[in-house]
Structures are given as C-alpha cells and as structure tokens.
Amino acid sequence: MDRPVLLRSDDPALLAAAALAYAAWPAGRTGDGPLIQLDLTLSEAPSGEPVRIEVEGGRLRSVGSGPQFWADAQTLTGFCGVPAELAADPGRLASEALDTLLLFLLTRSGRTPVHAAGVMCGQTALLLVGPSGSGKSTLSLSAMARGLQILSDDTVYIQLQPCFRVWGFPRPLHVFPADAPGFISATRLRAGKLKAVVPLTPGAATSMATQAAVVLLQRDDHIRLDPIAPAVAVDALARLEPGFDLLSEESAEAAAALTASGAWRLTLARDPGAAIDLLIARFGSGVASAP
Questions:
Q1: Looking at the domain assignment, is residue 177 inside a domain?
Q2: What is the mean predicted confidence (pLDDT) over 136-152?
Q3: Helix axes 272-283, 136-145, angle to 10 degrees
C-alpha cells in the first residue's frame, strides 16, 4: 500500500518465512510516509489456540493462549511471538498473526478500510458493497473465473492524500462451499461461518486502482444495474459493521470521496456470472459516467 514496512527478527528462518508470506510486496522500496515496524520472535505458545483481539484507542493486543501479539498506532510498531508451527507455514503466519498487525497499523496510517469487495473492470475498481452474506465473495469468484483482477473479496483500503487510490490486500477468496464447486482446497471458519478457501489464480490479483465506482448489492428475481444518488451510497457505507466502526470519521471522508461522482445498485438473481457480465458490459471500457 505504498507504506514502508520493516520486519525484524533474530531468527533467520522466521524472517525467511515472513518474507515468503509477503513475497508479492515490492522489496527494497522506501514507500511513502512513516515507517511501520514489526518485531518477530519464536514463541512456545501453541498455534491453533483461540485468541481474542482487543482494541483500546490506538493499541491492539491478542488475548488468549494462542499467538501473542500487539500493535501501537502512535509509534507504528508491533510485536508478535510466533509459535514454531506458524513459523514453518508462511500462509498461516500471515493469516493468523501478521496480517492483523499490519492492517491495524496501515489503517492508522492513511489507508481507511471499506467493507467491500474490489474487482477491476477496465480501469475502474468496482467496489461491491453489502453486509456479510450479500454475495461479495461469490461475485469475486465469478469475476476471477472471467479473468478479471481482484483487489479483495471483503475489504479495500482508501487513500485520500496526497492523491486518491484504492488499495487491495490480495488474499484467497472465502466463499460458502456450495458456491465454490471444484474450487475447494481447504475450509476455514470466518466470522463463525464455514467458508471454502479459494486461492487466487496466478495473475488474478492486483494491488491498486486510481479510480473507483461504488456498487450496492441487493437481491431480487431479475438482474438490474441502476444509477443511484450519491447520498444513498453514502448512507449504505455509513452502516459500519464491527471492526470498521473504529475509524468512523475517516470512513465518512472515504465514503464522500468514493461517491462524489455517483454510484450504482446491482440487483442480483441466482446467477453471479450473469451479474459480472452486466458489470463488464457497463464498466469494461473504462470510467463509468455519473448518473
């Protein structure tokens, strides 16, 4: 997300695992803004044990018998005691520990989270907005099957200064197993629901877009795509779910910027592929006109 991040450890194997976990990130660049720094050390804490995330002001910490970690937004520093099992698995190291710290610090460093899937259509990032279970991940899977690049299936990050950017944090898609026939490589509990983990196909992910269109999702019997007033989209974006409500002022600024030129409502029926085809027909050639 164009922020400098320094990962430090006195254990070479742990540092190598962290480097693999973020191999898609450009190395050697200074980035823009203050440095984010994470210190990692091996721990005897058991992996797979439940932890609870507590946030108080600008500090985050894990509570429980699993991996122990904390982050401080004022100093943009963090610490993680990594169980040996996680240190041997870069994917789990990222998803079960380091991603939480990095995203907490990035979102306190000018990258505001918005609860939306991000799908590239032409030069435009379509931000698919709806509550959990509204179809964001299923649409992302259909988009990937049609060769579109994915920013994220759940959260994108908005930069307003010094210029507008929409950032993704590419990770595997999480969809209900029934919606991913032939794609299931593993399952995982996410927000208390069993989801299939679908890795992004090579070349399917991107990290940044310079323009975006907000698309609100609803369900009915017939597929439609209709322009809506910016105020309607701002109201939808203002309904912050837990985890997104910690940055309400920043979220309001991001919503205003995203909807300044209008927004859309996509009515979904049973076929997510047909909905993606409709979006491609409308946005595939570039920037959508304002309603």
A1: yes
A2: 89
A3: 70
User: DSSP state, 154?
Assistant: S
Strands 208-209 and 173-175: unpaired
pTM over 0.90: no
pLDDT at 287 over 70: no
Q: What is the pLDDT of residues 8-46, one digit of tens each?
A: 999 999 999 999 988 877 776 666 788 999 999 998 877
Q: Please tell me the distance from the alpha carbon of residue 217 to that of residue 227, in angstroms, as a whole number.
A: 12
- Domain limit, last residue, from 107, 124, 157: 107
Q: Which of 229, 220, 233, 215 is CA-nearest to residue 279? A: 215
Q: How far is residue 140's CA from residue 135's CA, in Å, rounded to a whole number?
A: 9
Cα 158 to Cα 162: distance, rounded to the nearest angstrom:
12
Q: Is 91 left (phi over 0), alpha (psi -120 to 50) or beta?
A: alpha
Residue range(s) defining the domain that contains residue 28? 5-107
- DSSP class per residue in 169-185: ----EEE-GGG-TTT-S
Gap between the Cα atoms of 21 and 142, Å rounded? 26
Does the structure show a pLDDT above 70 at 288?
no
